[in-house]
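User: Here's a structure from my thesis project, written as structure tokens. My advisor, Dr. K., wants to see whether a designed sequence matches the one we expressed. Can you design one independently, without my sequence as a hint?
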């Protein structure tokens, strides 16, 4: 006779709510669920493990007397309608935990290689001049406005931006799913990105389910968090209105990194409302950023009324949402973007040298086949 596990019904309901799963649909998915919830039956350990997997819940939580109160393990500056977001999803939590594991591994690797602490982490503060801080960040990255002007698209500019951060030793990870699980898509409405500050292994995660335009601003925002040496979870965009002092300052610096106000004043052609959309498009091509970033900077110049600004914002947001997103792409380019080239190169090299177990490398990279590991290494010039 198989051993049954006594589980409190409120823990079962909590697990469904935590994962955003409808209880009625769960009953269709797992026929025994209603009997467990009504205490007419108890699950076996194997059935409980299946339920835990379906709800993305650690099995140990079901043996607690009460549902745990979970918090993101880094400062959480997300708000909805200026109200702090209380409950993180399991997708968000699992993504943060995985990135923390990767950062911990890379920190130990950097120490073993004798790497020196990275000087820019924590090199500025909220009292620093915004324009000067943005210029220091651009200089450290090699972020050249003229080079950017000559790029074919702002997608190319984003790729270049990520590569520049990568070469500085920043672990930049862009992913729209949890690990490599394409069934667990991240929700950009929940978060856009986060920064894990560390002077040996600074890490930025960008929600790849967000638009490419939004990703550009997110990267600039999270890089600013590293410069002040503070880990943070964010959901800000170019025209959002954060209430926290740190987020306000990081947003201002991010906008200045991408579109320096002094340069915009020289470039902007002040015309009527009828020509604003054309001007947004022209300046977006010039700076290779989202039209929403340009709109925010035009508003910063002070030539738009609030009515004009919000009317243009709603129209532009509607236009951007109507643009279909591209699909597919090279698997290994996608994989290296998900874990970051800097991290992937280090982990693959360490594993091939026998310093890291293949089992651990596969876990951190998010796959289980040696052939995938080998081919990823070849795509990065390692092998």
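Assistant: Designed independently from the structure alone:
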């Amino acid at each position: 006779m198989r051993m049954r596990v006594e589980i409190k019904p409120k823990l079962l309901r909590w697990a469904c709510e935590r994962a955003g799963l409808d209880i009625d649909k769960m009953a269709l998915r797992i026929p025994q669920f209603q009997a467990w919830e009504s205490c007419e039956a108890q699950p076996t350990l194997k059935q409980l493990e299946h339920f835990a997997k379906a709800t993305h819940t650690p099995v140990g939580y079901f043996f607690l007397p009460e549902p745990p109160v979970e918090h993101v393990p880094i400062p959480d500056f997300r708000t909805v309608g200026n109200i702090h977001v209380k409950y993180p999803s399991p997708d968000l939590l699992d993504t943060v935990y995985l990135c923390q594991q990767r950062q911990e591994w890379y920190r130990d690797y950097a120490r073993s290689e004798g790497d020196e602490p990275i000087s820019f982490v924590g090199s500025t503060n909220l009292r620093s001049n915004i324009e000067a801080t943005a210029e220091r960040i651009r200089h450290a990255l090699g972020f050249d406005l003229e080079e950017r002007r000559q790029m074919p698209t702002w997608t190319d500019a984003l790729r270049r931006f990520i590569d520049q951060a990568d070469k500085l030793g920043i672990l930049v990870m862009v992913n729209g799913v949890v690990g490599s699980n394409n069934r667990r898509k991240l929700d950009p409405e929940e978060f856009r990105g986060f920064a894990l500050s560390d002077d040996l292994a600074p890490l930025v995660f960008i929600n790849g389910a967000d638009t490419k335009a939004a990703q550009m601003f997110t990267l600039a925002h999270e890089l600013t968090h590293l410069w002040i040496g503070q880990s943070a979870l964010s959901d800000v965009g170019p025209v959002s209105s954060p209430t926290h002092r740190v987020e306000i300052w990081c947003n201002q610096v991010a906008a200045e990194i991408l579109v320096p106000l002094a340069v915009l004043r020289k470039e902007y052609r002040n015309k009527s409302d009828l020509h604003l959309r054309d001007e947004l498009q022209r300046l977006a091509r010039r700076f290779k950023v989202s039209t929403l970033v340009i709109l925010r900077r035009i508003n910063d110049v002070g030539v738009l009324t609030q009515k004009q600004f919000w009317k243009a914002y709603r129209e532009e947001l509607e236009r951007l949402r109507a643009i279909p997103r591209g699909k597919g792409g090279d698997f290994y380019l996608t994989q290296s973007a998900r874990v970051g080239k800097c991290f992937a190169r280090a982990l693959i090299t360490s594993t091939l040298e026998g310093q890291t177990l293949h089992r651990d490398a596969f876990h951190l990279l998010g796959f289980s086949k040696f052939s995938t590991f080998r081919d990823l290494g070849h795509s990065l010039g390692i092998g």
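When you compare it with your expressed construct, this may help: Residues 237 and 297 are 13 Å apart (CA to CA).
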